[in-house]
Write a structure and sequence with these properties.
The structure holds 2 protein chains of 2 kinds. Helix content of chain A is about 0%, strand content about 55%. By secondary structure, chain A is an all-beta fold. In chain A, strands 2, 4, 5, 9, 10 and 11 form a 6-stranded mixed sheet that branches. A 5-stranded antiparallel sheet of chain A has the order 1-3-8-7-6, with no helix packed on it. By secondary structure, chain B is mainly beta. Chain B is built from no helices and 11 strands. In chain B, strands 2, 4, 5, 6, 9, 10 and 11 form a 7-stranded mixed sheet that branches. In chain B, strands 1-3-8-7 form a 4-stranded antiparallel sheet, with no helix packed on it. In chain B, a hairpin with a 6-residue loop joins strand 4 and strand 5. The radius of gyration of chain B is 13 Å and the shape is globular. Classes of the chains: A mainly beta, B mainly beta. The interface between A and B is medium-sized, with 22 and 27 residues.
Chain lengths: ~110, ~110
Amino acid sequence: GQNIDQPTEMTATEGAIVQINCTYQTSGFNGLFWYQQHAGEAPTFLSYNVLDGLEEKGRFSSFLSRSKGYSYLLLKELQMKDSASYLCAVRRDYNTDKLIFGTGTRLQVFP
Amino acid sequence: DGGITQSPKYLFRKEGQNVTLSCEQNLNHDAMYWYRQDPGQGLRLIYYSQIVNDFQKGDIAEGYSVSREKKESFPLTVTSAQKNPTAFYLCASSIDWSQPQHFGDGTRLSIL
């Protein structure tokens, strides 16, 4: 079957660092996406990993280990506006962008 | 500014009624998608289209229909055969299969 696991909820303090994990078991793999979604709004694209390693983009970084079926999203210097759900999604097949989404991790940032 | 427009933002359906959700994009993207989001569940793919006049079923297509007569438009009809239509519906588009998907602001559908 296809399975993507993320923690349901996390909390952190403003200015801190938080790591959101995502593990996947899928019949194929051709890339992993992270999206941010504020309540009642559209998901917005954060990062994409297809090779092992770390991708850094400002305060956000994403890591992938294909052999372990594992990714994480690292958020540094947390701000109140980072309170949102973070969605992990896997593209299973080459030449398609059919994605499988995890249930999302709801992050609450406190002052 | 380019983007994806979904309308209406809120929609109510009576039992036995078909309703159509609009999705328009001016990003010149070839691929378009419809997802359904339920509380506590991930986004699930309903239908997708990689090119005009062609579309494919996603994972939960039963009770839904789509058309892709124009590149910029991908309307979704929720038919009376869909027994549990209450959900948040998201439309997305991408340049092609290799690029990230960009989402509209969604339509929240409820049953009266």
